[in-house]
From TrEMBL:
UniProt protein name: Uncharacterized protein
Residue ranges the record marks as coiled coil: none
Keywords (A to Z) from UniProt: Membrane, Transmembrane, Transmembrane helix
Transmembrane regions listed in the UniProt entry: 53-69, 90-112, 218-242, 248-266
Domain of life: Bacteria
Biased composition (Low complexity): 330-344, 363-376
Renumbered residue ranges of the record's region Disordered: 284-304, 319-404
Length: 404
C-alpha cells in the first residue's frame, strides 16, 4: 500500500515537472507558442539550427503527455470507489487516452518533422517543398491538435480528476494526524526555551488545522480553475481571446496543481497511528427523517474541523481544572493523545500504553463477585476513549415517536 502510494505520487510529480520544464524551455528559447505563427521558412531554418536544444524540451513535454495514461490507470486501480460507478472510471480512462494521443501527435511535429525537413533547398529561387510540408504540419499538428484540441481534452481530464479522484482522497482522509489539542499532553519543559517550543507546537497544530480546512477546496477548485485556463488558452490560440501568453500560463498553473495532487496522494497514504472507520447508520424514525444525519462529502472537513475545536475547548477546561488541583500541568492528562475520525464523531484515544489500574470501588467489588473481570490471556485492555460529537440540531417533527 505504501509503495503503491509512492509510485502514484511520483507519477503525478514527474508528469508535472516534465511538463513545466519542457514548456518553460520552449518558451524561453524559441518563443513558444508564437513560433507557430512566424514565417515558415525562417522558422524551419531557426529550429533546424538548434535541434540539440529543441529535442530535449519536446521530449519532456511528450513524456508528460505519455504519463497521463499510466497515471490514470493507477487512479482507477487504486480508487475503485470513484463515484461508485463503473462509467466514471471508464470515462476517466478514455479521456486520458484521447488526451495523451492528441498531445503526442502535436509534439511529433517537433520531434520528427523538424529533423527531417530542416535542410537547405536543392534548387535556389524556388519554394522548397519541405517548407510547404512544415507549414501544413504546423497548422494541423501544432495549432489544431497541440494547442486547440489537446488543451480542451486536458481540461476535461483535469475536471474529472478534480471532482472524482481528489474529492475521494480528501473525503476519507485525516491528513495531519495525529493532532494533539492545543495545550493538551504537551511535554513539560523548563525555562524560556521550553515555553517557546510549547507555543510553537501549539501554533503548528493550528496551522495544520487550517491546512486541513482548505486542502479540499484548494485542490478541487484549483483543478476546475486550471480547466478554465486551458479552455481560455485554446481560445487564445485560435484568436478568440487576444491574450498570447495565456496558453503557457495555463500549462504552468496546471503543472503546479498536478504536483499538489501528487503531494496529497503521498501524504494521504502515510501510516499514522490513527484509525479511520465508519459508524453504523442511524435507523430511520417515524416521519422518514434520519436522526443525526451523516455529513455529505462536501461537509465532512468543516464538520471535523468544528468537532475537533469543540474537543479542544472541552479538554482545555479539564486542563485548567487539573492545573488548579495539581502543580504539574500534564499530571491529569492521558499522555500522547491521538485523534481518530470515525463516521460522525471525533474520538480522542488515550495513550498507547495502558494506564495504571484504579483501585476498585465497592460497587465494582460487588459486581465482580458474579463474574470475572479479567481479560483473556495475552490480550490488553483498550485505552479509554472519549467520543466528542458536534451539538445536535433541532429534532425533526415526529422524530420522537417509535417506529411501528
Amino acid at each position: 500500500m505504501r509503495r503503491g502510494a509512492d509510485v502514484s505520487a511520483a507519477l503525478f510529480v514527474w508528469c508535472a515537472l516534465a511538463n513545466a520544464l519542457g514548456i518553460a524551455g520552449l518558451t524561453r528559447v524559441f518563443g513558444y507558442p508564437g513560433v507557430l505563427n512566424t514565417p515558415a521558412a525562417a522558422t524551419l531554418a531557426d529550429l533546424g539550427a538548434r535541434e540539440r536544444t529543441l529535442i530535449p524540451c519536446v521530449l519532456l513535454t511528450a513524456t508528460a503527455a505519455f504519463l497521463l495514461v499510466p497515471l490514470t490507470a493507477r487512479i482507477v486501480r487504486a480508487r475503485p470507489e470513484l463515484d461508485g460507478a463503473r462509467r466514471s472510471r471508464w470515462l476517466l480512462l478514455c479521456t486520458s487516452l484521447a488526451t495523451s494521443t492528441v498531445l503526442i501527435f502535436g509534439w511529433s511535429l517537433w520531434l520528427v518533422g523538424v529533423p527531417l525537413l530542416a535542410h537547405p533547398p536543392g534548387v535556389t529561387g524556388r519554394l522548397d517543398p519541405n517548407v510547404i510540408t512544415f507549414d501544413l504540419l504546423r497548422v494541423v499538428a501544432g495549432v489544431l491538435c497541440g494547442e486547440t484540441l489537446g488543451p480542451l481534452l486536458l481540461a476535461g481530464w483535469t475536471t474529472l480528476v478534480a471532482t472524482r479522484f481528489v474529492a475521494v482522497v480528501l473525503d476519507g482522509w485525516w491528513p495531519f494526524g495525529p493532532l494533539r489539542p492545543v495545550g493538551r499532553a504537551m511535554p513539560h519543559r523548563d525555562g524560556a526555551f521550553g515555553r517557546f517550543v510549547a507555543v510553537a507546537g501549539a501554533w503548528t497544530n493550528w496551522l495544520r488545522l487550517r491546512g486541513l480546512l482548505w486542502s479540499r477546496p484548494a485542490l478541487v477548485g484549483g483543478g476546475v480553475g486550471c480547466a478554465v485556463l486551458l479552455v481560455a488558452g485554446a481560445a487564445s490560440t485560435v484568436g478568440l481571446i487576444p491574450a498570447a501568453p495565456l496558453p503557457v500560463l495555463a500549462r504552468m498553473v496546471w503543472s503546479l496543481w498536478l504536483a499538489g495532487v501528487g503531494v496529497a496522494v503521498w501524504t494521504s497514504r502515510t501510516q499514522f497511528p490513527v484509525a479511520l472507520g465508519a459508524l453504523p447508520r442511524m435507523p430511520r424514525r417515524a416521519g422518514g427523517a434520519r436522526a443525526g444525519r451523516r455529513p455529505q462529502p462536501s461537509e465532512r472537513l468543516p464538520y471535523r474541523y468544528d468537532a475537533y475545536h469543540q474537543a479542544i475547548r472541552q479538554n482545555a477546561e479539564r486542563l485548567r481544572a487539573a492545573e488548579r488541583r495539581s502543580s504539574h500541568p500534564t499530571a491529569a492528562t492521558a499522555g500522547d493523545d491521538a485523534v481518530t475520525v470515525a463516521g460522525d464523531e471525533v474520538i480522542l484515544d488515550g495513550a498507547r500504553r495502558n494506564p495504571a489500574p484504579a483501585p476498585p470501588s465497592p460497587s465494582s467489588r460487588s459486581t465482580g463477585l458474579s463474574g470475572s473481570s479479567k481479560s483473556p490471556a495475552g490480550e490488553e485492555l483498550d485505552p479509554p476513549t472519549e467520543i466528542v460529537s458536534s451539538p445536535p440540531g433541532p429534532e425533526p417533527p415526529g422524530a420522537g415517536t417509535s417506529e411501528r
